[in-house]
Amino acid sequence: MTLSNLSTNLASTVYNRLFLNRCYVCNIRNEGSLCLSCQSLLSVNRNHCQLCSRPTRVSMTLCGECQKKPPSFDRIIAPLRYEGLCRALIQKAKFENQLHLLRPLVAITAQHILNKGIILPNNWCVVPTSRQSLAERGYCQTSFICTQLSQSLSSTPIQRIQLQRTLDVSAQHTRSKQQRQTLSHRHFHIDQPVPEQILLIDDIVTTGSTAEACAKALRLAGAKRVTILALARTAE
Ligand SMILES: [Zn+2]
Ligand SMILES: [Zn+2]
User: Fold this and answer.
1) Residue 44, strand partner residues
2) Three-state helix/strand/coil letters over 135-147
3) Nearest to 124 by CA among 163, 72, 161
4) Least confident of 26-40, 135-149, 180-194
5) Is there a single domain that holds both residue 54 and residue 37?
6) Is 116 in the same domain as 155?
7) Alpha-carbon distance 104 to 155, whole Å?
8) Among the four 47, 116, 117, 183, which has the fewest Cβ within 10 Å?
9) Distance from residue 3's CA to the centre of ligand 2 (Å)
């Protein structure tokens, strides 16, 4: 064994001991990144609108918003509700430089896709992080989710499409609800024609205005079906 092999093996053993054999939340020894007890603290988005995945009290076909104005995307898939532990993990990942905390949520999302037998398009793009957030954090969490998901669901090769921000507005969480709802497709653009079926990846869907703006931009570039995949969904 060479010295470089030895150090690589040592590094991976240390990494496994530190991170992979312990629950990220309660730190007990565990095979996965989240133990069953901590997983039970996550709220599954069981009852929701079949189109925008907005959480509802009872199972319903379409929520009032989707009935009033059909969105530009075909469907949002979001297996978790953005509350409690799920919210805490995403917040820490985004704002406290702990990207690894998204791993258990990505694993649950991948499992959800497999359990439900959902066939995803092969062309993937991510909601791009604003330039301001990228400068502050130094990473794009949606790209991280995209890479992790494609590794978990590696049955088909994934082609990445680059969606870009035209107007680099401030991050969604710093804006009022009204400002978010007026987010226009002009905020996003794509330089080339895109395939007919696209999967758009985001971390959370809040008002749905970013999903709508991105879907509009993708449709203008030639997409016929836009499926949104997010880790979690808020109620409004
Ligand atoms: Zn735990
Ligand atoms: Zn809806």
Assistant:
1) 80
2) HHHCCCHHHHHHH
3) 161
4) 180-194
5) no
6) yes
7) 20
8) 117
9) 57
Are residues 176 and 60 both part of a single domain?
Answer: yes
Ligand nearest to the CA of 48: 2
Ligand nearest to the CA of 33: 1
Range of the domain at 63: 48-233
Q: Which of 24-33, 100-109, 162-171 has the highest mean pLDDT?
A: 100-109
CA distance 233 to 83: 9
Both 128 and 193 in one domain: the answer is yes
Which residues fall within 8 angstroms of residue 146, CB to CB, at 6 or more apart?
124, 126, 160, 201
Q: Which ligand is nearest to the CA of 24?
A: 1
Domain count of the fold of the chain: 2
CB 48 within 8 A of CB 54: yes
Q: How far is the CA of 56 from the centre of ligand 2 (A)?
A: 9
Residue 145 CA to ligand 1 centre (angstroms): 21
Residues 105 and 186 placed together within one structural domain of the fold: yes
CA atoms of 129 and 195, how far apart (whole Å):
22
94 and 67 in a common domain: yes
Please answer whether residues 159 and 122 qualify as being in contact, where contact means their C-beta atoms are separated by less than 8 angstroms. yes
| Distance from Cα 35 to the centre of ligand 1, integer Å | 4
- What are the tens digits of pLDDT across the range 84-137? 999 999 999 998 889 999 999 999 999 999 999 999 999 999 999 888 888 888
Side chain identity at residue 40, one-letter code: S
Per residue in 191-225, pLDDT (tens digit) is: 889 999 999 999 999 989 999 999 999 999 999 99
Q: Do residues 23 and 91 share a domain? A: no
**CATH number, domain at 178?**
3.40.50
